[in-house]
Amino acid sequence: MRRRRAAPEPPPADVRPPAPEPDAERPPRYRQDEPRPRFEGFEGFDGYSSGYHSGYSSGYAARPDYADYGYDEYGEYADYGAHSAHGAHDEYADDTRAADVPPTRGERRERPEREGRAERPGTERPGAGRDRRPPSRPPRRPSKGARMRRRFFGWIAALSVIVGLAAAIWFGSQKLLGFDYDDYQGAGVADVVIQVSDGDTTGAIAGTLAEADVVASEEAFLAAAQGNTEIRSIQPGYYKVRAQASGANALHALLDENARVGHLQLKSGGQLQDVEQGNGKPILGVFSQLSAASCTKLDGQSTCVSADQLSKVAAKADLTDLGVPKWLARGAASAPADRRLEGLVAPGLYDVKPGSSAEQLLTEVLSSSASRYEAAGLPGAAKKTGYSPYEVVVIASVIEREGVTNDFGKISRVIYNRLDKGMRLEMDSTINYVLDQPNLRTSSKDRAKDGPYNTYRNTGLPPTPISSPSTDALTAAVKPPNGPWLYFVRCEKNGLSCFTNTYAKHRANVADAQRRGVW
After folding, report:
1. Cβ proximity of 470 and 268 under 8 Å
2. What is the pLDDT of residues 199-231, one digit of tens each?
3. Which residues contact 506 (CB under 8 A, 6 or more apart)?
4. What pTM was estimated for this model as a whole?
């Protein structure tokens, strides 16, 4: 069923065409009394145009906007005169249809397209190009429940996206900033010993713990140690901790006061073997102290190495294999087997690893001692003395046992002066060394005994050092001050001695010290 197009709104009064006179007769729609002319070129078209306009000029031509009132069927004929004036050819010139048969609506609609030109501005027909299909039924508005459901699921989808993005940002930042790390749970499963080296930072300690499987990752320990100032108190050395512990438990175990193991301090003037005191309490020697440092318990098992085991290894092992430098090993090679290492262990702080063998313990101590002797100038500094580096260590060991630090230089000069003159040293410390007693004085009976360490009976130096010399004693041994001194005796309660170059003056100093109860 064809729907009638609604008429457009009437144009304004100033452009509305004048109303026709009441008695004017409206021209017919088509001329029925003449056949439709056939045009043969430009002249025929003009004739048709003249006839056309002559019949419709008073009606149609006078009202160019009839298209606005529904008469759009005639709009395409409105410019036939202009078409004729430009010499265009009418496509209907060859049309053989009868004049009373008007062109179809499709032909009128397609004619501008066949001619390849658009309508003139201002003559477009209302509704031209408009879709003539009946409008479709407007969509139904969804119900309130449907809108609520759609809105709810929309919020759910948006929230899911936000949560996903937040999770991605969180896990990404954790990985990027190092917060994502592995960590064990609990206090650990087994005892292990780790080493903290000199100069280690918190990061270096974390790396050591991770390598020993104490913690699952370095980050686990670093996270636990963050903000904890007590970690600065950790000193270089060995520590007993538990393997596969959490970062927090590993830090707690490392800061425990009993965690440090294998630490010992060797004092200057000490000997390899224990020395009995007058009160019955021994002064522990190097072997005993090293044995004590080797002791701890790992999962209930003792790691102790006895002093006898250390003494046996020291007597039989190759000295260079134990870390003794060659310039010291050559002099110690001729020493008695049980005293070969005497004086070669420098005083100071040491850290040994519990669970090590006797060979490993001695090697660790002797290698460190060699570095300390080299720091004191040996072996190069010994060249100026005229004695070998080993003999300089022997001299330094005697200096260490004979006086206090303030007198080291003068004691060293006394030794060199007496050696230069071929005099016996007559040092009580060398006799007491083999007697394993710390007394300063000796008896006439002790001085009468034969032995390589009796400097009252032998000329020259003892065969080995008699103690572990300090750096001050070594310095005094390689750089003695100038002086004529040949004798000295302790004459002050603070340990200072009185020096002289004559025996008579020396005997007077001895008598005065004995009278005042100093010596």
Report:
1. yes
2. 999 999 999 999 999 999 999 999 999 999 999
3. 486, 487, 488, 489, 500
4. 0.65
